[in-house]
Design a protein that fits this description.
Helix content: 10-25%
Number of strands: 23
Structural class: alpha+beta
Strand content: 25-35%
Distance between the termini: 81 Å
């Protein structure tokens, strides 16, 4: 008892509180547990008040108004969600009153957790993330949370419990994240829906990376276009690479990193069979970069990039393939990736594009073509770039997964229909889509997606 009292006094001292660190959750929770379990101690009431204030301060500093953990990392989102959920589950079970704001923000984290969990139960390797299986993470705590949050329970269990969200597109405006889903599947085909996790948010903390307008693509039951991962926190050339812009599925100018600054998440919406998100930034001096992503259904996506700069640059559209991919190039622009001889991914570029395709695999000068799923472990990986030199560039890319990756008759073309409106026409296996985007990633943005019975070409 004397030892616990000494610990309480130690924890209550401000100098022993990691106010700027998520470790502070453990310290504030320990102080709360002491004050609740040993109420007869002379300072118990004072310690409880200190613990409550610290918990509110921590949740405010770690979780934004939209319920997303601030470090731009699905791993850290679940890390903090678990810390907060352990406490809220304990408090509800034992009828301990917690600060209302702490409970509200902790509960608000469940929406992003629901959407960012891939259909296979793992999280995307965005930001400072490592391979994590949500379905094996704190099962007792998250099962108890799932009783109060049926949509989270559906995502967490792969459709074995709870109920699926009705929407197929979700925007998290405070963080700038958007998630698109083809559908939510069922317990029978839980891993089959396609998913895009899109980053339209700014660099917020040192655990973030220079990855504005990047996205990851999940299809055919697995991640296919991935982030490179974390690898290390030790400063040096490897840290610089894994946090660099070129290590992500986004646009680079002259191979340089984006500056820190504002990023605009544009329209996030959905229609019959499709979902859409866009974003823009000016993180390269004198240049505007705009991107739209359209999930056209299971295993099929379209990306439209538009770059305008005040001077000439080497403008690169970068793609990072799934680890272990075997690459096949067909012609100057089209790429197919297989695993064990099975087609899993195809990238088709605008046939009118003048972009030059390059394949990087374990390059060391400069570093390119590396991935890391676990901290401290890295491997060579195919990283593609489509390069254009000039003051402007426009890319239209059709992305297919699984059986669609082996389909014939692929074609995609983009043109300016009229000032401020882009029209992209895509064909695959005798099916056709027309996507009109007005005021891309700007005020008044509109999108129309139409599917045709057959391709004109």
């Amino acid at each position: 008892r004397r030892s616990i009292a000494r610990l309480g006094s130690f924890l209550a001292e401000q100098r022993n509180f990691d106010v700027g660190n998520n470790h502070g959750f453990a310290e504030a929770t320990a102080l709360l547990l002491i004050s609740e379990s040993f109420r007869s101690l002379p300072q118990a009431a004072e310690w409880r008040a200190v613990a409550d204030r610290r918990l509110v301060r921590l949740i405010r500093g770690n979780v934004d108004a939209g319920g997303v953990q601030v470090e731009r990392s699905p791993f850290y989102h679940f890390y903090v969600l678990r810390l907060a959920s352990d406490l809220t589950v304990w408090a509800r079970r034992h009828r301990v009153a917690l600060p209302a704001e702490f409970i509200q923000r902790a509960d608000s984290m469940l929406r992003f957790a629901t959407w960012i969990t891939q259909p296979d139960g793992f999280i995307p390797l965005q930001g400072s993330s490592v391979r994590t299986n949500v379905r094996k993470l704190a099962p007792e705590t998250f099962a108890a949370i799932g009783e109060q949050a049926p949509e989270f329970e559906w995502s967490r269990t792969g459709g074995l419990a709870g109920r699926p969200p009705r929407a197929r597109a979700a925007a998290f405006r405070a963080s700038g994240d958007a998630v698109l889903r083809s559908d939510w599947g069922s317990a029978v085909d839980a891993t089959k829906p396609a998913m895009i996790a899109f980053n339209g948010g700014r660099f917020r903390t040192t655990h973030a990376q220079h990855d504005a307008l990047s996205f990851v693509f999940y299809g055919a039951g697995r991640p296919l276009l991935t982030d490179s991962g974390l690898f290390t926190y030790d400063r040096g050339r490897w840290f610089d690479y894994f946090s660099s812009t070129r290590a992500h599925n986004t646009i680079t100018l002259d191979g340089r990193d984006q500056r820190r600054g504002a990023v605009r998440l544009g329209l996030v919406t959905e229609g019959p069979g499709w979902s859409y998100a866009s974003g823009s930034h000016r993180l390269y001096r004198g240049a505007v970069v705009r991107r739209s992503v359209v999930l056209l259904g299971r295993d099929l996506a379209l990306v439209v990039d538009d770059v305008a700069a005040a001077r000439a640059h080497r403008i690169s559209q970068n793609w990072h393939l799934f680890p272990g991919a075997t690459l096949e190039r067909r012609g100057e622009r089209d790429v197919y990736a297989t695993a064990s001889g099975r087609p899993l991914l195809a990238l088709w570029q605008d046939a009118a594009s003048t972009a030059k395709l390059k394949d990087h695999f374990g390059d060391t000068g400069p570093l390119q073509g590396w991935s890391s799923e676990l901290y401290g472990k890295r491997r060579s990986n195919h990283a593609l770039s489509y390069d254009v030199t000039g003051r402007s560039a426009r890319f239209a890319t059709l992305i297919a997964a699984g059986g669609k990756a082996g389909a014939t008759g692929a074609d995609v073309r983009v043109r300016e229909l009229r000032p401020g409106t882009l029209r992209t026409e895509a064909c695959l296996a005798r099916a056709a889509w027309t996507v009109d985007i007005a005021q891309q990633a700007a005020a008044g943005e509109r999108v129309a997606v139409r599917r045709g019975a057959a391709c004109a070409r």
